[in-house]
């Protein structure tokens, strides 16, 4: 009886060592190039939108932003003035909050979706004013970072990742 217990304990100990080795191996695997790429992509996109939102909220002001970049330029378009004003005020706030949350890595997917809609909105606005507008300046690079961040594996440095681990 005592021999069986000893064998069982030795077996459990060997299994624990094996599991510990696998955990160590998994930890080393999580810090590969793809995860660093996800980190840099997420933080860079977050900084870009955070700074744009900061400028529009605290330097320009959301109401001035709405008036200068939404209401006045599109006054003759099909879009009602109230919608232009509401959207023009909301955009800088969404950019600021989503940019900050992206830098932290909290609610990353939600932030990427919100910023994706902002990029669609900005693209449409530019094309409404100028049908052959080139998106290469600021829309395309942000879109590439956004899509990259979506497609890359989970970022182990993000708050989202820490919360998932429990």
Could you give a quick summary of the protein structure above?
The chain is 80% helix and 0% strand.
Structural class: mainly alpha
Shape: elongated
Number of DSSP strand runs: 0
Q: Which band does the percent of strand residues land in? A: under 5%
The domain tally reads 2
Topology as a string of helices (H) and strands (E): HHHHHHH
Structure description:
The chain has 166 residues and is mostly helical. It folds into two domains: 1-30; 32-165, no CATH class. Helix content is 80%, strand content 0%. It has helices spanning 2-30, 33-60, 62-71, 81-104, 108-129, 139-151, 159-165. Helix 4 (81-104) packs antiparallel against helix 5. It is elongated. The two termini are 40 Å apart. The model is unreliable at 19-26 (pLDDT under 50).
Q: Secondary structure elements and their pairing?
A:
Blueprint lengths: L1 H29 L2 H28 L1 H10 L9 H24 L3 H22 L9 H13 L7 H7 L1
Question: What structural keywords apply?
Answer:
single chain, mainly alpha, 2 domains, elongated
